[in-house]
């Protein structure tokens, strides 16, 4: 049997990390779960919140909660940059995964498919859409093509008004 000095600390065996089903965002009553999209506080206060999808959550023995996230990129964060057809609320689901403190979660948001986003009656501050997946290392997109419209032959930007031609029925 090991002896300890009087007043000495006996180290407790480390308990493993445990998976969590949910986490309540600090200072709120909002609960996030695996699969939810969240706004995450950037280290630079002049930048907009980052958007990520929660892939997993775990707490250590001291109840420090970490989230495994898959990042969404804004067009200006991609290699090609923002283009004319990118909407203001457009995001790209990247192949970039990371582990972050749950304390950096600012709130929940919704990332819609492009089709569902264009059908929204009212677009809220926490509504975004995604029509591409983005490979961060190569700058490649999936799909690598989208339907084009009009004489300008540009993909549809939901922020721009489109009018259907009465003759050919094209937008």
TrEMBL record:
Q: Which key words tag this protein in UniProt? A: Metal-binding, Nucleus, Transcription, Transcription regulation, Zinc, Zinc-finger
Looking up InterPro entries in the UniProt record yields: BAH_dom, BAH_sf, Znf_FYVE_PHD, Znf_RING/FYVE/PHD
Output the Gene Ontology terms for molecular function.
chromatin binding; zinc ion binding
Q: Where is this region: Disordered?
A: 1-20
User: Cellular component GO terms, alphabetically?
Assistant: nucleus
Q: Name one Pfam family in it.
A: BAH
List localization entries: Nucleus
Entry-linked SUPFAM superfamilies? FYVE/PHD zinc finger (SSF57903)
Indicate where this protein is primarily found. nucleus
Q: Where is the BAH domain?
A: 30-145
Family, according to the entry, reads as follows: Belongs to the SHL1/EBS protein family.
Protein name (Swiss-Prot/TrEMBL): BAH domain-containing protein
Which organism does this record belong to? Salix viminalis (Common osier)
